[in-house]
Structure formats: structure tokens, C-alpha cells
Amino acid sequence: MIQKINERVFVIGSEGSANVVVAVQPKGVIIVDTSLFSEKAQKIRDFVENVLKREIQFLVNTHYHPDHTFGNIVFENKSIISSSLTREKIMLMDEHYLENLPASGKLVPATATFEDEYREGQVFIKRMGGHTPDSSIVLLEQERVLIAGDLVFNDFHAEIVSDSDLDAWLSALESLRKYRVDWVVPGHGNFADKGCLDSMIRYLKKIQRLVDGTITYAEILSDENFSKRGFPELFSWGLENLVAQRAK
Ligand SMILES: [Zn+2]
What we know:
With 248 residues, the chain is α/β, with parallel strands linked by helices. The protein is 34% helix and 24% strand. Helix 5 runs antiparallel to helix 6. It is globular, with a radius of gyration of 17 Å. The structure holds zinc ion. Zinc ion (ZN) is lined by residues 63, 65, 131, 150, 159, 187.
């Protein structure tokens, strides 16, 4: 499903799958994240080249997770930008990591990397950590659109993984609140106004309190910020990851 934020920015994602953003810029099209499936990535490439009739300028991976990077294979001859940490983590994926994933046979890491920040015209990329240590955002300054990657989940529970850092995640969200944007594209779920940053902050703070034992599970379940989110199994899985982190 292709949704339009405006005439130049499109969001492709459905039913909680990872969003892909297509943004028409003066020198070509920028694509942020490439989905889990090469078939979907190919359709996105066709949309850019045959429907929009534009050249692809470059791609960005917000972080290493397969649902944001596996479609890279379709863009192998294009320039792909990510943090150096994202590239490193993709290079480290072994057979064990890939065994239950629809790996297309070949992982394609970035062709150009940055440490903390990268700028190309009015496109600003910054690594913030939180969801994963390499989690990065992309800011389309001209369009006032923030592509938050998996730092924001809207309508769906968050993926809290073994290398998530809740404190870093919360401080990243606090700094994103200061960005001058009209729209936020989450890693999963519908794009929304900046209010989705506040919901995400409240959500993670409550999870922190649950793990600390200062709030009960029943209280969490009665909060619409939890009960209305899809994929409740992600919530239980995230809690398990946090408890395992504490046990270390
Ligand atoms: Zn992720």
C-alpha cells in the first residue's frame, strides 16, 4: 500500500510491516529502508523508475534489522548509505542468524558509511541508538518529515530486542521532539504528527516502570497506549528481552 504524505514523499508498508519511504529530492529519489522481501523491494524500485520516472539517488538503511535491509539486494548497483555500525552488523549475520529468515541468498551492506551524522543537501541522517545501537533517523528538512525507523512504533507494539537500550531510546525520542517537523514516519505503523513521539515516550517509560516493579501488569493492560497496539506477542517478547538484560 502506497500512502502519500505530500506530492514528494511516499510511505510504503502495510499491516505493521516495516515502512519504506520514497522521497523525491532535487537530484533524484532517496529510498529509506528496503523491507524484508526482495519482491516488495523490486516493486518499489519499479514504482520509482516506471511510475515516478525518476533516478534513484541513494538508499539509506536506518538499522541492520532484516525487515529494513534485506531488500537491498534489488538495489545492488546503487549507492546505499548507513552508519558504519549498521554495515558491521550486517556483515556479522551468519547462518545461525539467517536460518529462519527469507534471506535472498546475499546480504548487501552499505556502499558508503558514516559514524554519527551524514548530510546530503536537505537530507540529514543521524545515528541515535536506542532500539538498536545503530538506530538512525532520516530528516527531510525541506518536507519537514522525520523518518524515525524503529525508534517509533505507531499502532503496534515495539520490538524491544536484546541489544535495545531503553535509556538511550528515551533520550533519542526526547531530542527528536525538538525537531521542527510536521510528520513522523515510524518504523512500523501509520505516519502521524509529532504526538506519536509522546505516545512512544509514555509507552517506553511505562515498560521501564513495569520492569522496575513500580507498576502492575494490569495497569499496563488498561492503558489504551498498550491495549490498542497490534502484535501483543511482541510486547511479551520485549519484556523477556528486558528481564534477560537485567539478569546479566
Ligand atoms: Zn528494528
